[in-house]
Amino acid sequence: MSLTDSQDVLARVEREKEGYLEELKDYLRIPSISTDPAYRDEVLRCGAFLRDKMLQAGLEAELIETDGHPLVYGEWLGAPGKPTILFYGHYDVQPADPLELWRHDPFEPVVEGDELVARGATDDKGQSYAHLKAVAAVLAERGKLPVNVKFIVEGEEESGGEALESFVRQDAGRKLACDCVVISDSAMYAPGQPSLLYGLKGMTYVELKVTGPDRDLHSGSYGGAVANPGNVLAYLIARLRDAETGKVLIPGFYDKVRPLADWEREEFARLPFDEEAYRRSIGVPELFGEEGYTTLERAWARPTCDVNGIFGGYMKEGAKTIIPSWCGAKVSMRLVPDQDPHEIARLFEDYVRSIQPKGVTLEVISHHGAEPVLIETEGPLVEAAMAAMADVWKKPVRVREGGTIPIVSTFSKVLGVPILLLGFGLADDRLHSPNEKFNVSNFYGGIRAIVRLLDRAGAIA
Amino acid sequence: MSLTDSQDVLARVEREKEGYLEELKDYLRIPSISTDPAYRDEVLRCGAFLRDKMLQAGLEAELIETDGHPLVYGEWLGAPGKPTILFYGHYDVQPADPLELWRHDPFEPVVEGDELVARGATDDKGQSYAHLKAVAAVLAERGKLPVNVKFIVEGEEESGGEALESFVRQDAGRKLACDCVVISDSAMYAPGQPSLLYGLKGMTYVELKVTGPDRDLHSGSYGGAVANPGNVLAYLIARLRDAETGKVLIPGFYDKVRPLADWEREEFARLPFDEEAYRRSIGVPELFGEEGYTTLERAWARPTCDVNGIFGGYMKEGAKTIIPSWCGAKVSMRLVPDQDPHEIARLFEDYVRSIQPKGVTLEVISHHGAEPVLIETEGPLVEAAMAAMADVWKKPVRVREGGTIPIVSTFSKVLGVPILLLGFGLADDRLHSPNEKFNVSNFYGGIRAIVRLLDRAGAIA
Questions:
Q1: What is the mean pLDDT of residues B215-234?
Q2: Whether the Cβ atoms of residue B333 and residue B204 lie closer than 8 Å to each other
Q3: Based on C-alpha coordinates, what's the Rg of chain B?
Q4: B38 contact A CB<8A
Q5: Cα–Cα distance for residue pair B297/A303, rounded to 1 Å
Q6: Contacts by residues A252-256 (CB-CB < 8 Å, ≥ 24 positions apart)
Q7: What are the angstrom distances between the C-alpha of A382 and each of A365, A412, A445?
Q8: Interface subset of B 308-327, CB within 8 angstroms of A
Q9: Residue B367: pLDDT band by 50, 70, 90 thresholds?
Q10: In A, which residues are within 8 Å of B276 by CB distance?
């Protein structure tokens, strides 16, 4: 399979790409802020815009109503016997404030050099629209596709909506049946260096509340005579992780952790990674993590136990002399396969109760969990995707990530197919921040990569 | 020395006591709220009222201007060769809000049974005015006093003013030279059971701030790769005290602690104290404190190390997944003689720096300190005071307290004389709260006790 097989479509993309960019700008002009009810109509208008673009491309397309914002679904199933690729994306965007930090109206896209600046440019309108324009270009050029395609694009990714999750679970792989899912909602490892993201952490998020006296007490009158919830909370948290080795001390915590494979440690070690630049970029005096692992291994592939917030008693300026009635903390544990978020929550609670000092009561509240996921990194479709990215840039590096994308584990579990996380963004895209941008060259590169993926997948024997 | 020696004055007090109560009501009608600038004129009017009452009693009296509210000073020095007693009190009061919780106007005193209800009734106008009325009664009856007396009554005790502190230090025992100080601004151990408060704790109050990354980081992307300021803060606090034994672990912390004397442990053990009722009154499942000590010993005579507040990262509802840039805590150590607040602050800082995990920076801020104080519990004036209290109620019990009254240690250090903390209040006086009260019988009892103190002190050979 050589590049010449896609030459017809790639030439069309090259001729028409500025038109694609104009379409993307129209898409970006719709302020589809899902989290703000004031923008509800705009979100609806945005979903309809996308459905219309799917229809114009030659797909069958519809809006699927949900309890929240509608899903946009499209399909072209005219290649019987060939693989089916499901493209996922989201058409909603983050709020744009603080507005005063934007160089332009966040919903009036401006091209500055290679950068298309607008809210949603990279997250995820620009990346996801590359999927559609690739499919549209093939259909326009050839009247048919080498594979079957489906699109499912949601409207509440940025607002924590459950619509897609429920839809995927209820659908149970009927409408969404496919051979792989392609998601472009992440960044390349470095400019010009694409990556295949194959591992995401899961999460157990808990809140600890330690209660002592039924009200704040005078620390003079009662100090020394009662357990102090602040001291007790600190004790419990301190017992979660070894301060020297960084190991989590909850019994059983590591039992189901799948060790890093040799090839992973080797590939991670080969990645260009400037530890000193990383340290400087976050302003810490020194890096710290679990003994026996590199920084990338710690961040991508080892479970964590972190305080996200801690609070209680007198928190303002100056000195107030009280024994707080209660203190609390929010603690997240990022999990790796095959840790189970519910089991980890239980182990956490059992452990803190087993070491709980006397004189206080303890509440453990489970906020939410997400399953860790490791995606197949082998097989013909994975290889087709890797090769398609290499056709445009260079051979992708296989990476994992410390973050959690709940829909990935849902897709993986319900559909049982590889999830190809092919990011076209860059690390400096400022997503969720003012002046969000997407490199125009990456938009075009993404379209070309998907064209190649379609052709390569269609050529699988 | 028998009660008959004071019979003349005690009979006058009995005849005139209702008039004294009316005077106290006038004093209470002046809303001398020192902390609220809107009441500045009332505070001044209140100081002038008290000065005039001193003049009417036959003292020389004046207002001493300060940077804050004036001090009221009075003296009668017509007993050469006899002891000089300095009476301390304060004429300012706490704010009265929340007003809606008062049964009456807080500044329109109402007698309900034995209770005189008004802001300042017990804290400290009522208690301190008993001093003046005792002196006035003796002068009215006999035209002279058996001892020399001085009064220093301040107007910013409730607003943390420094005026009296500076005055005492600058005066350096000239104008305020005396043989003992009498303070009535506390409660009896129980109704009918007076106490002599001879020990107060000091304090070292510090704030710890642990800083990691220069901003909050995504706990997925960076978790495991950097030290978490919340975890580190908890570790540092957990290392301050042994969770099992309640011992403070700062090296040198106990070096200068004066052990409880045998007589103290014996007297404390004999005090009526219902541990179960105490536990219930503060709503804790169990009491907890330093191994080897009783609850009263812990609260009164052993140093503490308590979290007063802890904060950092995400402190609101729900879950936010960050590694906080910093976390902090406020920690107070209540000290006992002969611990030095500055030395303890230094030991604290040296210790936390010596155990500081890597990957963070640590700030230790010293808020303020106060010296612990133990007052002479022997000697003729102390015995005279104990006997005077016994004349009215019963033999006082000697008690200590966990709280800090900075002016006591200043008096003690600058004047070098016993400080007699003779409380006429009761534990249920609701000071600083709505419906503050002072028992009328304790007002009269206080006057009689001071009359007896004057006579007993005058009889010292």
A1: 95
A2: yes
A3: 25
A4: no
A5: 46
A6: A252/A347, A253/A303, A253/A305, A253/A333, A253/A339, A253/A344, A253/A347, A254/A303, A256/A338, A256/A339, A256/A340, A256/A343
A7: 40, 14, 19
A8: 308-315, 318-324, 327
A9: confident
A10: none
* pLDDT per position as a tens digit, A190-212: 999 999 999 999 999 999 999 99
What sign does the dihedral B275-B276-B281-B286 (CA atoms) show?
positive
Contact flag A402-B222 (C-beta cutoff 8 Å) = yes
B417, two tokens? 């004389």
Asked if residue A59 lies in contact with residue A144, where contact means CB atoms within 8 angstroms, the answer is no
Tell me how crowded residue A245 is: count the other CB atoms within 10 A of its CB: 12
Taking the Cβ of residue A209 and every Cβ of chain B, the question of whether any pair is shorter than 8 Å is answered with no
Q: Report chain A's mean pLDDT, rounded to a whole number.
A: 95
Q: Would you call B299 an interface residue with chain A, using a CB distance cutoff of 8 Å? A: yes
Residue A409, phi then psi, degrees to nearest 5: -70, -30
Work out the average pLDDT over B357-379. 92
Q: Which of B201, B211, B226 to mutate to test the interface with A (most CBs of A within 10 A)?
A: B226
Just give the CATH number of A202-257+303-370.
3.30.70.360
Q: How far apart are CA B241 and CA B238, in angstroms?
A: 6
Residue partners of B392: CB distance under 8 A and separation at least 6? B194, B445, B448, B449, B452
The arrangement of secondary structure in B3-200+372-458, i.e. its CATH architecture, is: 3-Layer(aba) Sandwich (3.40)
Question: Does the beta carbon of B227 lie under 8 angstroms from any beta carbon of chain A?
Answer: yes
* B320 has a pLDDT exceeding 90: no
For residue B301, give how far its alpha carbon lies from the nearest alpha carbon of chain A (Å): 9
- Domain spans of chain B? 3-200+372-458, 202-257+303-370
Instruction: Determine whether A143 is exposed, middle or buried from the number of CB atoms within 10 Å of its CB (0-12, 13-18, 19+).
Output: exposed
Residue-wise pLDDT tens digits, B392-429: 999 999 999 998 888 998 999 999 999 999 999 998 99
Interface confidence, given as ipTM, is: 0.89
